Amino acid sequence: MDLTFQQIQKYESGANRISATRLFRLSQVLHVSITYFFEGVVGKRPANYGKHVPPDTLTKFLSTNESTQLTVAFAQITNPSVRKRALDLIKSLA
User: Fold this and answer.
1) CA distance 1 to 63
2) Which helix (H) or strand (E) holds 34?
3) From residue 61, how far is each of 3, 14, 64, 70 by CA, in Å?
4) For the purposes of burial, counting CB atoms within 10 Å of the CB of 70, is it exposed (0-12), middle (13-18) or buried (19 or more)?
5) Whole-prediction pTM value?
6) Cα dihedral sign for 78, 6, 13, 53?
7) 7 CB-side CA count, 13 A
8) Which of 34, 47, 56, 82 satisfies CB 3.0 to 4.6 Å to 27 for a cystine?
9) pLDDT (tens digit, 0 to 9) for every residue of the chain, 94 residues total?
């Protein structure tokens, strides 16, 4: 994955967050579903979580080239208000 030992340590310790794209790539390298990394995670969903998406549907989407492109493009938006507008646009299209 072309990561330094130090970067892996930062991910493991929680000093740095791992991007969705890198997490997806890691799931491919390890030959596991991306949901593997979230097994046993218990938490409260945000109030605006919306409709439930079946895990297999989400996994299929995350394995597409479009999801990778979307994730990379969205991550490059640095302005919070632009990010929110982009998310609102995608929600309205859905």
Assistant:
1) 17
2) none
3) 25, 27, 5, 11
4) middle
5) 0.43
6) positive
7) 7
8) 34
9) 788 989 988 888 888 888 888 888 888 888 888 888 887 776 665 555 556 677 778 788 888 888 888 888 988 998 888 988 988 888 888 7
Q: 83: which 2 tokens?
A: 């990010």
Which residue shows structure tokens 């790539």?
25
Q: What single DSSP character describes residue 32?
A: -
DSSP secondary structure letters along 7-21 = HHHHHHHTSSPPPHH
Instruction: Evaluate whether 11 touches 18 at the Cβ level (below 8 Å).
Output: yes
Please, are residues 83 and 77 in contact by the beta-carbon 8 Å criterion? yes
